[in-house]
């Protein structure tokens, strides 16, 4: 059955190889099962419900990718966009998490329509590659800062605004140990380094008594009731001027995350044909299904996981790899008691490492072209300093078309960029008025 449907022999693989690849991909991305509840839990959302929503929508979207697009690419809620959801929208703007989920749902509907009518490529192409790279790099700085703050490595300082945290605190020392372990594993290119680093840090925390011992390891799947369908109830408050830039940012970040990840994975795996990805529409649809379904289950937008490349590296070539990865995600739902073990000191290393990886995108910015450099710089700097992804994007998207106009290159700017710039100007005015 698998042989005929996935054409395993033709792709030079086997069920055993695909199983190993699926397990490898799962172990490499399993950290999101614990990091996502930690991030979204800061908004008051039930962590157990978010845990289930994360694993369930990851399984659904990844299995869809495997069965329909037939690629070994995994889909799950993404780091960065979940931080925007929690820290920028809910905590920063004071929007209820139910309304924020409704914003994800609306963005998901638009996302799905844009995918169906193949408009996504047009919008993506309208935004300069340099700004796309700056957004990805800026998000890297932003989520790394969250990891540094949550792990206690940095803290507010009255004299210098920001400074080192109390490194003599045993829990902060645990964060440092976790970061060093994870960095070492990743530098050695150990498969599943981020996940293994979190496990090792948790063990150190348990042995030293800094982390409470879980009451059990395996249990029944927690209830989804606290978050399921809340996006629908939040729709009554979503159609406001304040939510327009939020929905727009959900769309933009989801656009860039998925497009960048898919291209990167496909290039490394040799799936591109004439610089294009066959069945790209079906692959993008898997992400659209994830984003829309995730909002209904109770989690932030999904994205294609670059960790999929680890499964490809051990021989995964077809959608059967994704099918196995999805099944492992379903099995993981029975391990919710471990959430108490995975504290912010444990997840800090994952956030920092992913931040480092995303920051590498800044190499693609043309720093010698001032309009591009200025817009990119403000985008990157604005995110961590304002503690808001949308504020950073707003700065870049306002400055870029303006500087292109004053340097006589206004015709080179796509009309969509002018529309986005005006939208973000309105956003900044509303933000300052409400603030």
UniProtKB/TrEMBL annotation:
The answer to whether keyword Ribonucleoprotein applies is: no
Predominantly, its location class is: membrane
Judging by the UniProt lineage, the source's domain of life is Bacteria
Q: Tell me a GO cellular component.
A: plasma membrane
Provide a Gene Ontology MF annotation, just one: purine nucleobase transmembrane transporter activity
Q: Which InterPro entries does the annotation name?
A: Azg-like (IPR045018), Azg-like_bact_archaea (IPR026033), NCS2 (IPR006043)
Give the location in the cell: Cell membrane
- Membrane protein topology class: Multi-pass membrane protein
Q: Which UniProt keywords apply?
A: Cell membrane, Membrane, Transmembrane, Transmembrane helix, Transport
Record field: transmembrane: 20-43, 49-68, 75-95, 101-119, 131-155, 193-213, 243-263, 312-331, 338-360, 372-403, 415-433
The UniProt entry's sequence similarity note says: Belongs to the nucleobase:cation symporter-2 (NCS2) (TC 2.A.40) family. Azg-like subfamily.
User: How is this protein named in the record?
Assistant: Xanthine/uracil/thiamine/ascorbate permease family protein
């Amino acid at each position: 059955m698998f042989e005929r449907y996935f054409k395993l022999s033709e792709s030079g693989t086997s069920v055993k190889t695909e199983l190993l690849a699926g397990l490898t991909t799962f172990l490499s991305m399993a950290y999101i099962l614990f990091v996502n509840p930690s991030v979204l839990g800061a908004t008051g959302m039930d962590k157990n419900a978010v845990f289930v929503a994360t694993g369930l929508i990851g399984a659904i979207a990844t299995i869809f990718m495997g069965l329909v697009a037939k690629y070994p690419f995994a889909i799950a809620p993404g780091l960065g966009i979940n931080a925007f959801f929690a820290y920028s929208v809910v905590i920063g703007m004071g929007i209820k998490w139910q309304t924020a989920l409704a914003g994800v749902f609306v963005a998901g509907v638009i996302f799905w329509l844009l995918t169906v009518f193949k408009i996504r490529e047009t919008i993506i192409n309208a935004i300069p590659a340099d700004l796309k790279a700056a957004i990805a790099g800026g998000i890297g700085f932003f989520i790394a800062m969250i990891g540094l703050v949550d792990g206690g490595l940095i803290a507010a300082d009255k004299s210098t605004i920001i400074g080192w945290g109390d490194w003599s605190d045993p829990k902060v020392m645990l964060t440092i140990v976790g970061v060093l372990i994870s960095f070492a594993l990743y530098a050695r290119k150990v498969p599943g380094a981020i996940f293994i680093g979190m496990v090792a840090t948790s063990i150190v925390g348990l042995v030293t008594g800094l982390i409470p011992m879980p009451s059990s390891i395996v249990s029944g799947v927690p209830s989804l009731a606290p978050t399921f369908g809340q996006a629908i109830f939040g729709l009554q408050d979503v159609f406001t001027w304040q939510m327009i830039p939020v929905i727009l940012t959900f769309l933009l970040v989801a656009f860039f995350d998925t497009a960048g990840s898919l291209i990167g994975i496909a290039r490394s795996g040799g799936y591109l044909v004439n610089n294009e990805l066959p069945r790209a529409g079906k692959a993008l649809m898997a992400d659209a299904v994830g984003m829309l379904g995730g909002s209904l289950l109770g989690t932030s937008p999904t994205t294609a996981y670059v960790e999929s490349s680890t499964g490809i590296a051990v021989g995964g070539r077809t959608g059967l790899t994704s099918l196995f990865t999805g099944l492992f995600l379903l099995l993981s739902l029975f391990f919710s008691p471990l959430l108490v073990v995975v504290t912010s000191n444990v997840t800090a290393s994952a956030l920092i490492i992913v931040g480092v990886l995303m920051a590498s995108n800044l190499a693609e910015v043309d720093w010698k072209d001032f309009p591009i450099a200025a817009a990119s710089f403000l985008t990157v700097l604005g995110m961590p300093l304002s503690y808001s992804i949308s504020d950073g994007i707003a700065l870049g998207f306002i400055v870029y078309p303006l500087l292109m106009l004053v340097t006589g290159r206004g015709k080179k700017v796509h009309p969509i960029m002018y529309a986005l710039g005006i939208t973000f100007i309105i956003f900044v005015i509303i933000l300052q008025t409400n603030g």
